[in-house]
UniProtKB/TrEMBL annotation:
Residues 1-19 form the signal peptide. This is Sporulation protein. It comes from the Bacteria. Pfam families: Spore_YhcN_YlaJ. It comes from Anoxybacteroides voinovskiense. Residues 207-217 have a biased composition (Basic and acidic residues). InterPro entries: Spore_lipoprot_YhcN/YlaJ-like. The keyword Repeat does not apply. Residues 191-228 are annotated as: Disordered. Keywords: Signal. The keyword Signal applies. The lineage of its organism: Bacteria, Bacillati, Bacillota, Bacilli, Bacillales.
Amino acid sequence: MKKAWIISLGAAVSLSACAQMAENTRDTLYPRNGNTINVSDRNDLYNVQGLPNGTDSRLNNFGYVRHQKSPIAGGMNNVGNLPTLNRERVADLISKLCVQLPHVNDVATLVTDEEVLIAYDTDTKNRFETADQVKKTALSVVPRYYHVYVADDPRMMKEIERFGRLDSNSRNIDQIIDTTIREMLKYPQGRKLSDGENENGEMINEMNDHLDRDFRDGTPIPKQTMSK
């Protein structure tokens, strides 16, 4: 009887140790959520602090994250914390970056669900080159499906400012913004981005032109519009 009790106690201790090891392993592998995988040095791949590297600051660190669908067969991936685009912060960033460009003194930026409208004040002697720099600065910030339109006219700042309190669900917002974009297209827009994209990042002669609100992408103009 005493022998059996000792065996039972030993088994309980072993199971407890295994459970503790499993708990420690789980905490080591997934310190932030159940889908983040760590490297061999146990440094979390979503690493806020970054690896120490001499006198480098955190701004110099690369970013690397790896996710599995789920570490447990049949488990659900946690998608509750997916990042979203804060349009006001993006507009703020674009304005801050553009005002650092040569000969650009004042910048107003509007970011919608698919366009960036930038009005700016400049003392440049090369309006085309400055427009190209402003446009490409904005394109470096927003997702690639965005189109960017610029105007080197301070009066256009008031024009786009009135959209600041509106949103994608505002009544007739597309038609109102389209009118402003057509006005902005009268100003220099810089170089076309590639053989397949025009100056504003609109795809040229793409298959789904009828679904895209483009303005100068090579889409044939309807006859009724041409006659006006």
